[in-house]
Design brief:
The protein is an alpha+beta fold and 176 residues long. It is built from four helices and seven strands; from the N terminus they run E-H-H-E-E-E-E-E-E-H-H. Strands 1, 2, 3, 4, 5, 6 and 7 form a seven-stranded antiparallel beta sheet that branches. About 19% of the residues have low confidence.
Length: 176
């Protein structure tokens, strides 16, 4: 059977992850493409400018989303994706179960969930969290001003001074 099971830990609340899965404006943010997603059983959705579509089969807000999955180039029409969301610490665990994946596209689909879908959502929230953390950080301490670099002329004169001192010391030693 051509099933994919993956688990993601996302640094966002279940409500934030739910919105990333179901609100077109947020889907467009992480996918960087046009999306429609009417959250109703039987509602037809489309992602990536219509290259992937399907229908909403079932949902329990903040917990479970089940939808059919049909890329334009797939023959099979019985592919189903289930997302299960569970709070975990200060984030959310998302379990993905994708059944009846087109055999010829199994590897690409497996990788695609991580690169373009749940992985993209995870990266989006990690980036947002980093921005929030940056705002909360203590003010940046100013670095002490660097001493101006000595010019070559100054460096040469220092070396010349050392040489003069050595010669003077040597002359004094000879006189004694």
């Amino acid at each position: 059977m051509n099933d994919i099971k993956q688990t993601y830990e996302i640094a966002a609340t279940p409500a934030e992850v739910w919105r990333a899965l179901t609100e077109p404006r947020i889907i467009e943010e992480w996918s960087e493409a046009r999306a429609t997603f009417p959250l109703q059983v039987g509602g037809g959705y489309s992602l990536w400018d219509g290259t992937i579509g399907g229908e909403i089969v079932e949902f329990v807000p903040l917990q479970k989303l089940v939808q059919t999955w049909k890329p334009q180039d797939w023959v099979r029409k019985d592919s189903i994706v289930t997302f299960m969301l569970m709070p975990q610490g200060s984030g959310t665990r998302v379990d993905l179960h994708h059944v009846n994946v087109e055999e010829l596209d199994f590897d690409g689909t497996t990788e695609g969930w991580d690169i373009y879908y749940l992985g993209a959502i995870k990266r989006m929230f990690e980036g947002q969290k980093d921005k929030r953390a940056a705002v909360k950080k203590a003010p940046v301490k100013k670095k002490p001003a660097k001493k101006p670099a000595k010019s070559r002329a100054v460096k040469k004169s220092s070396a010349a001074k050392k040489t003069v001192k050595k010669k003077t010391a040597a002359k004094k030693a000879k006189k004694k």
